[in-house]
Amino acid sequence: MEFLPAIEYQAGNITVPENQPRQPQSLQDLLRFTVEASSMGQESATSHLVGPMDEDRRQFLEQTLRSMTVDIVEVLSKAIEVLKRASSLSTEDDPTECEEAFQEIMDHVDNIDNANDFHKIGGFCIFQPCLNSVHSGLRWRAADLLAELTQNNPYCQQKVLEAKLMPVLISLLNSDLNEQVRIKSLYALSTLIRECKEALEEFRQNDGFSALLKALQSGVDKLKIKASFLISSLNQAWVKNELHRLGFVQEFVNLISEEVNPCTEHLLSALLNLVTSHEASQVECRGTKLELRETLSRLIERLGPKEEYKEVCEYARQLSLILFEGDEVDK
After folding, report:
1. Reported pTM
2. Exposure check for the chain: N or C terminus, fewer CB within 10 A?
3. Locate the Nucleotide exchange factor Fes1 domain: which residues (predicted)?
4. What are the contacts of 146-151 at 24+ separation with CB within 8 A?
């Protein structure tokens, strides 16, 4: 029996057969394509090498395909149900199941659509009890999840504000006894207020900048780095006025004058951002009591030849140019 050739259409220089099946775009597509092609019972030019798919192999491929298809909403919903029980945990109870539920959620909400779905299916109900849990592992994981949800996500930023979670995070940053909880709370606050004017204003109203200053004074490197990184991203004039009023300039200068450490680069970057286009901060930096001129000169002289301190020296030079018209650069 002979078959007529498939009808073909010309599209530029490409010949496109009619009824051409959609080409597989993923492994799941490939498996589905294989199963469907087998069920059609069509013979190919290689039929003498590869016979029709037997029923066992067909079932195996279908099971594999199903196992690779994850219902993310169902996964998130199950994790939420587990975390709803967090408020009932006492200090003697094992929080492992809840900690694993947090990890299950974190595995999916890096996708912004999944993050938004997490809120829409009621996921935000877990935050108040988990942020106030007696278990520090649940407190920091809740803050970490908030940071992931609000990272470059205006929808979730707004929903966090509506849920009144900002004051809770500031309180944790200020006074929680667990270092990891304070670090993750600052991380969540940073992602929440960045590029969100409403969140930044609420941060001010809840005395968030004082909490930020306390983080700089904590002696914890990760807190100092995260606080400096956040300040480096805030360019609003009113924010700089607030930072100057609270004494951030002197705190930065004091920390920079210490022995060079992993925080130095970030502290210099934050101070550079603060003094840029802010006269009051510049005037304070030029005060002889702070000895910033000498500190910058020492950094440039001692660290200049060392490649690993390239960024430190560059920030020091830029500060010298703004504050002292480049005196230290020429020495």
Report:
1. 0.79
2. N
3. 27-117
4. 146/188, 146/191, 146/192, 147/184, 147/187, 147/188, 147/190, 147/191, 147/192, 148/106, 148/109, 148/110, 148/115, 149/109, 149/115, 149/118, 149/119, 150/188, 150/191, 150/192, 151/191
